[in-house]
């Protein structure tokens, strides 16, 4: 069987000493930034992108992936112990996790969330294995026009599902697309928006942009708000009671299913998964009044969901080359840095990288249970490090990371500029993620658009005449129309209000 | 005046400004025809759409209102940006350690609490860490202190 062959190949790649080390390193860093509020996976991956130059492609992708799902584990620790979400995706875990901790059940909450996350991660990985091949085969039939429409759908869906104001978010996508055009035009060699700066002629690097938008801007906002820390709580016994186990098993199953599904959607991902899972549990529960007072389902289900979604959000990126959220956009960047063009070719041309990465995700999940449970005391201690130590350190790593991209201080200046821009975005309530997606997809989308138009002799009808492209465009239009309907618009606004 | 100082109205203005800037700086690029697109075709298209979206955001904000903008605190953003710029200027001329000292000093001032002993401790720890990780570990071609190491 093909599937088994592929898995064996993947196991062979993932179980080398080097790749195991980088998986562990990624998971450790991920847990660390998950535990520390004020720095998320986007900024961290952006910071570490330059370092991946020095690593082989498989090792670097394994490490970056580890950071992403490691952050989901780490984020829950702080939510449960000190009522501070380390990551956006563990905001809901605070609601019941912290209440459990106050009743002395912190250890149980932690182990349920770790085991639930591990289970969800395993299922998520299996889903990737099953769906990767058929999706890739489908994607290989796509022509330039279809790709262009697929990207349009990806961008629109990302906007619709992930942000507050749709018009503003779409404008942010276009702004990102425009920034993506900076550099030399591939077809004619003309310099576009480079202002005679030689560093810009190769195109704008998105690592410094991501660092500025997600790292620097976040630090500044945290400094303004004067981040407070609560005192840590005693962990207590890690063993859940029989009753807690009985109640959390179905919750974990439901969370895993919902999370896996939402993770695949463009714009979906851990945060959406966790919020939806919590809402679902509350609706299904026989006594919804318990929620918010330490209901074990309210920890188990969202924690499973955010991890499942973190895994399955790799599917569109790995098979189609289309990132569904900001972290995936950076993973695309990491591949491009290594000279790999993300898309359906990755699986056929680099099967060792593809399957090695997938198997390593499962190994990483197993490592995380070990990192998180027995070593919990160490992470709790880290929580007592005040933000005034962390902020300068994060800034410093951003600066050095930006410099090492091409050994030029020009990129450090870029971090400063996009830090200011990111701060303006935050103040005006504009989301950074759609901007980053537009920026990453911009150059490719232009390529496909121009190629499609050239093939059709300038006839824009090609986007409607090809059935795949037409289907994708209709879906895009339907999504937009749906969101404009008054009733849905209202429900959506309420949902986002709850999140905020 | 408050009607205009809202998040949505100002972001609309920002989009319009970016759209206009892109049109202005892209005006020398040949647009070409749909079959043979010049380098300016897609930029022109994108800037016009951005411009239009910006106008829509502005109008909607004026008609249905939006949240007022929080008053920005100038200290953190100014000091953090200044710190990064100083780092960029010093890094190649003076080396990692001097640039690090200036960046950590300036950015520590951005917070609410500033204790000199703590900041010095932070600088010492970070200097050792960065030297080990970046210079020794990753073997990056940087000078720790210009002219010495």
Q: If you had to describe this structure to a student in words, what would you say it looks like?
A:
Chain A is an all-alpha fold. Chain A has one domain. Chain A is 74% helix and 1% strand. Chain A has 23 helices and two strands. Chain A has a two-stranded antiparallel ribbon with strand order 1-2. In chain A, α2 packs parallel to α4, α3 crosses α9 and α5 runs antiparallel to α6. The radius of gyration of chain A is 22 Å and the shape is globular. The model of chain A has no long low-confidence stretch (mean pLDDT 83). Chain B has 149 residues and is mostly helical. Chain B has two domains: 58 residues; 64 residues, no CATH class. The model of chain B has no long low-confidence stretch (mean pLDDT 88). Chains A and B meet through α8, α9, α18, α19 and α20 of A and α1, α2, α3, α4 and α5 of B.
Task: Write a concise keyword list for the protein shown above.
heterodimer, A: 500 residues, mainly alpha, two-stranded antiparallel ribbon, 1% strand, B: 149 residues, 2 domains, 5 helices, 67% helix
Strand runs of chain A, count: 2
Share of helix of chain B, binned: 55-70%
Mean pLDDT of chain B: 88
Q: How many strands, which pairing sense, and closed or not: the largest β-sheet of chain B? A: none
Q: Could you tell me the strand content of chain B as a percent range?
A: under 5%
Order of helices and strands of chain B: HHHHH
Low-confidence stretches of chain A: none
What is the count of distinct domains of chain A?
Answer: 1
Series of secondary-structure elements of chain A, N-terminal to C-terminal: HHHHHHHHEEHHHHHHHHHHHHHHH
Please summarize the sheet with the most strands of chain A: 2 strands, antiparallel
Q: Alpha-carbon distance between the termini of chain B?
A: 57 Å
Sheet/helix structural class of chain B = mainly alpha
Number of strands of chain B: 0
Count of helix runs of chain A: 23
Shape of chain B: flat
Rg of chain B computed from alpha carbons, rounded to a whole number of angstroms: 24 Å
Regarding quaternary structure, how should these chains be classified? heterodimer
Domain module count of chain B: 2
Rg of chain A, alpha carbons: 22 Å
Give average pLDDT of chain A, whole number: 83
